[in-house]
Write a structure and sequence with these properties.
mainly alpha
């Protein structure tokens, strides 16, 4: 098991957030996030905290997918979408911090 490999897999997920921000193929992005989280899970033994954060990351990504609205030039809708995506990225960052603890341990 390699925490460094798990971090590389998780970091590759960050590109998916950029794609999600454009609103293209959101269901595919969400499925790919879930798949990569499973790959990360196979690399390291997760603590209960990391498992919880990963679940929240999947949930926020799913919420974003289900509630995304094309902005059609509306600044309000754009800001709502951005706030939802910020929640996804926040939980990604928390999970990454948990995994970094495995690298330094």
């Amino acid at each position: 098991m390699s925490a460094a490999a798990a971090l590389n897999i998780l970091d590759s997920t960050f590109d998916l957030f950029k794609q999600m921000g454009s609103g293209i193929a959101l269901n595919l992005q969400w499925l790919e996030i879930c798949r990569r989280l499973q790959l990360v899970r196979a690399e390291v033994a997760w603590s209960a905290d990391a498992a919880f954060v990963a679940t929240k990351l999947r949930a926020h990504a799913s919420y974003y997918v289900m509630n995304y609205q094309p902005d059609h030039g509306s600044e309000h809708i754009r800001s709502v979408n951005a706030a939802m995506l910020d929640n996804v990225v926040e939980h990604y960052s928390i999970l990454r911090a948990h995994l970094e603890q495995h690298v330094t341990a």
